[in-house]
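sorry for the late reply, my laptop died twice this morning and i had to redo everyting from scratch. anyway the thing you sent over, i finally got around to it. pasting the sequence first so we're on the same page, its 202 residues, then the predicted structure underneath. double check i copied it right bc i was rushing
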Amino acid sequence: MQTPDRNTARTNPQRDRVPMPARRNAVQASAAPDQPAGKPKSFYVAVIVAILALLAALVLAFALFSHNGAGRDPNAAVGQLEGKTPEEIQAELDRIVEEGMFNISIASTVQLEDGASDAELRIENVPNNPYLMKVELARDDTGDTIYTSGMIEPNHHIQKAKLDVDLDAGEYPCTAVFYAYDKQSEQLVGQAAAKLTVLVQS
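ok and here's the structure:
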């Protein structure tokens, strides 16, 4: 009986800052020769649009401020409760750190009787994981993906499953990539990887 290889890796959410396109000035530098001196019509249209946009932004900001500010207790102070012991503060910090961790688990050696039989994967999304999990298994020599799981809820596991390809007898060094998804939005928040061996006996 192979003991599953348990690895723990911190998720690393990536955020890309995409620059906004530069605002273009729609105002002409000068009026056309056949127009009288003064501002072109496009200038006044642009001014009206800008004013309307500013008014809409002010209304939206006021609505958001009114909604967020409603019901706030004036006696509430920033920070944790006074009089907490160092142990209580540390326990809270540990809980926050634990919420940012992504625990992964899979067999260190995945064995199959033959290429078409079930593979003993032993993939587990442990109960204390705060994320949904998806796993992809790829060969190190070719990069080909040989297994892809569906979405796995916390406190669920995959004991055995068929691989996506029928492998010949042999030993295949592989990498399992674990993808972590937010439980509400199902947006990808990070990933972790583990090395293992797929062993096909015949």
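The chain has a mean pLDDT of 75.
thats about all i looked at so far, will dig more tmrw
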